[in-house]
Amino acid sequence: MVITGLLLSVETCDNVDCGPGKRCKMNRRSKPRCVCAPDCSNVTWKGPVCGSDGKTYRDECALLKAKCKGHPDLEVQYQGKCKKTCRDVLCPGSSTCVVDQTNNAYCVTCNRICPEVTSPEQYLCGNDGIVYASACHLRRATCLLGRSIGVAYEGKCISECPTARPWLRLRSALSANIPLRRGSANCVCL
């Protein structure tokens, strides 16, 4: 439309593609803008859900809205409020509940097979005093155990603990709040 030599631009949502989980809406200034509007028609569970960020959302639709608003990796971990233990947590599919270092329950899929170790630099000393061939092997052990095993330091565990005394166990510098050094560990009586 041309009025007295000026071209008026009429903006609409007609040709605006906002992407998944969003829709175009005209703002107060009659300008098109994309707003979060996830499709919740397929959501069957209407109760609270625990998100992969460790936060409880009132329902899956609220989580999808948060995902749209800047948390693209956010996923539903399990139905119900987020928990500090795996008790009463039903993980979907073949995933397993694991409690992390901050005492939050998460559902993870365990790796069945880890690649063969090709370099000694891949070894990790777990904060449980066990040598893991790689980060994959440590994650797999964490998953199968059901609780987090942290990395004490890179490399094989170096134990100064006498093996003849089973009541002495290796404790990593990390769990003892000692400054972390490569290959550092100390023994404590348990």
UniProtKB/TrEMBL annotation:
Give the primary localization class: secreted
Listed Pfam families: FOLN (PF09289), Kazal_2 (PF07648)
Does this UniProt record's set of keywords contain Transit peptide?
Answer: no
Compartments, as annotated in UniProt: Secreted
The chain positions of domain Kazal-like read 19-84, 108-159
One Gene Ontology cellular component: extracellular space
Tell me which PANTHER family the record gives. FOLLISTATIN, FOLLISTATIN-RELATED
Please identify the protein, giving its name as recorded.
Follistatin
